[in-house]
Specification:
This protein has 239 residues and is α/β, with parallel strands linked by helices. It has eight helices and ten strands. The longest helix has 16 residues. Keywords: Cytoplasm, DNA-binding, Phosphoprotein, Transcription, Transcription regulation, Two-component regulatory system.
Length: 239
Amino acid sequence: MTESSTHLLVVDDDREIRDLLTRYLTRHGYRVTAAKDGQEMRRYLADRNIDLIVLDLMMPGEDGLSLCRAVRAEGGPPVVMLSAMGEDADRILGLEIGADDYLPKPFNPRELVARIKAVLRRASTPTGTAQATAGAINFAGFVLDQAQRRLTDAKGEEVTLTAGEYELLVALATRPRRVLSRDDLLEITRGRSAGPFDRSIDVQISRLRRKIEVDPAEPTIIKTVRSGGYIFSPEVQAP
């Protein structure tokens, strides 16, 4: 996917910010549509092919959190969330409800472009050594199909994953029974694009556990290694 063919949807109630982002992203070769609220966002998602949403958190009426949650529930495109609230707790909350990345205001527009590119890259291609083993993987009754970027459970039903959750699962499943630190997982999935104290790995692990573990509080698939990181414990095999 090239920038010129990539369609971004900017959702922000501040007209000045919408206009600035539209102009800046257009200059970088993206097709850009701007929406002032959730109602416009839904209309554009329904009748246009949107590849990524740049979504403001604080908006009157339906805020960015509820809109992001709805996008995730409907299997919509990746979301980069913007917010004037830069505290860790706010960032983690945004990631927990399904944002693929989070950027606090004020921000450098060049960083926004870099994060958009990183999210789109994770959404469209396998990363790291997973690219060399892009077949299907069986584990604990699940099938992780890297060619179609799909996870199905024992009943054959698809488990909806965000781009970040998918890449994290691939990183773990292609390195079974190996302790991977948070830094290892950030390096594999994001190329160190996150900050040194980024907690998004923990958030995504928690979300993955809720989707694939029988009891997320007592995980048997993705186990925590004290002071070490995480380990993917089930037997893994090709179908």
